[in-house]
């Protein structure tokens, strides 16, 4: 059921909103209308398009990816069903009496799907702590993980750095790691220690890549913090993540698994001209129907 929502004047000048395309801005507002009073809804690009842009020929995956790229929404999975969470919804939508949500909240460390997971390259599970500037949202957001930059070391300490140099280097490392998916607060003591010790970009990024590989191999959605990275950098990580036993890969991670899931739900196989993303949307819609029936 659609709901009336409010748009604050400062919304239009927020830096993250200004960076969005015009249709992405409209889509973001439209999501507020169709999300429940906690900012949650079933993640189905096909359904979202019919709700918000029924008469427009638009690439919803691209628009949703644009919004997700700025951490305005997160996609998470509970019991094999994908949900969308508008980050910081409760902060910019003042609702006196919230209706009970029929959708599960994100878990403490939700499995967050990257856009490139649809390319059958698997799922990378990363989280970033962030805060929207003027919309006021504060939450854990998903971020895509760009390829590691293996540039030549730029920061080799020839002498003890000054306080200002350490502070600048700490901020630089923090920004670089956050951009690639690490969950770091401002002025993290471990990051400051790396800055003082002259740890290079290459060393830090290699540690992050190792941590991400271990999390993926273990099907772990735990955020990668500075403590974990520091144990890899210093070589004190004696026990890497152990893969969970009897943990089947999620149904959306390959064409074969999606087809098997469709057979299980008695859904027609991919039709001529239908993309795998559209096929996944049909499966999600069927799963959503099952959830809604169970709630009634």
Description:
With 296 residues, the chain is mainly α. Helix content is 41%, strand content 8%. It is built from 11 helices and 5 strands, in the order H-H-E-H-H-E-E-H-E-E-H-H-H-H-H-H. It has helices at 15-18, 22-34, 45-52, 60-69, 89-92, 163-179, 189-197, 201-217, 226-233, 255-264, 276-295; strands at 40-42, 73-78, 81-86, 128-131, 138-141. The strands form 2 sheets. Strands 1-3-2 form a 3-stranded antiparallel β-sheet. A two-stranded antiparallel sheet has the order 4-5. Helix 6 (163-179) crosses helix 7 (189-197), helix 8 crosses helix 9 (226-233) and helix 10 packs parallel to helix 11. The two termini are 15 Å apart. The relative contact order is 0.12.
Question: What order do the helices and strands come in, and which of them pair?
Answer:
Elements: H1 15-18, H2 22-34, E1 40-42, H3 45-52, H4 60-69, E2 73-78, E3 81-86, H5 89-92, E4 128-131, E5 138-141, H6 163-179, H7 189-197, H8 201-217, H9 226-233, H10 255-264, H11 276-295
Antiparallel strand pairs: 1-3, 2-3, 4-5
Helix pairs in contact: 2-4, 6-7, 8-9, 10-11
Jot down its keywords.
3-stranded antiparallel sheet; 296 residues
Short précis:
This protein has helices spanning 15-18, 22-34, 45-52, 60-69, 89-92, 163-179, 189-197, 201-217, 226-233, 255-264, 276-295; strands at 40-42, 73-78, 81-86, 128-131, 138-141.
Number of extended strands = 5
Shape summary = globular
Helix content: 40-55%
How is the main sheet built?
A: 3 strands, antiparallel
Query: What is the H-and-E element order?
Result: HHEHHEEHEEHHHHHH
Spatially, the strands of the biggest sheet line up as 1-3-2
**SS strand fraction:** 5-15%
| Total domain units | 3
**Alpha-beta content class:** mainly alpha
Distance between the termini: 15 Å
Contiguous runs where pLDDT drops below 50 for at least 5 residues: 109-160
Mean pLDDT: 74
* Gyration radius, rounded: 21 Å
Count up the helices.
11
């Amino acid at each position: 059921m659609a709901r009336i929502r409010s748009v604050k004047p400062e919304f239009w000048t927020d830096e993250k909103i200004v960076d969005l395309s015009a249709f992405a801005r409209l889509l973001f507002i439209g999501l507020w209308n169709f999300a429940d009073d906690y900012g949650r809804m079933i993640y189905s690009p096909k359904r979202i398009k019919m709700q918000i842009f029924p008469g427009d020929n638009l690439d919803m995956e691209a628009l949703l990816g644009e919004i997700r790229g700025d951490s305005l929404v997160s996609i998470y999975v509970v019991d094999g069903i994908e949900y969308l969470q508008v980050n910081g919804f409760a902060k910019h939508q003042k609702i006196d009496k919230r209706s009970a949500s029929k959708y599960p909240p994100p878990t403490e460390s939700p499995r967050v799907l990257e856009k490139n997971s649809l390319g059958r390259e698997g799922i990378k599970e990363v989280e970033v702590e962030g805060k929207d500037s003027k919309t006021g949202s504060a939450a854990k957001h998903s971020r895509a993980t760009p390829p590691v930059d293996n540039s030549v070391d730029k920061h080799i300490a020839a002498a003890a750095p000054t306080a200002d140099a350490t502070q600048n280097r700490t901020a630089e490392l923090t920004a670089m790691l956050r951009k690639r998916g690490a969950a770091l607060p401002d002025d993290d003591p471990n990051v400051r220690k790396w800055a003082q010790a002259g740890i290079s970009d290459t060393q830090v990024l290699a540690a992050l890549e190792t941590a991400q590989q271990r999390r993926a191999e273990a099907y772990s959605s735990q955020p990668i913090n500075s403590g974990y990275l520091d144990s890899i950098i210093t070589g004190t990580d004696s026990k890497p993540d152990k893969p969970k036993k009897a943990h089947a890969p999620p149904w959306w991670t390959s064409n074969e698994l999606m087809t098997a899931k469709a057979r299980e739900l008695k859904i027609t196989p991919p039709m001529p001209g239908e993309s795998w993303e559209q096929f996944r949307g049909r499966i999600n819609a069927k799963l959503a129907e099952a959830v809604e029936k169970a709630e009634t």
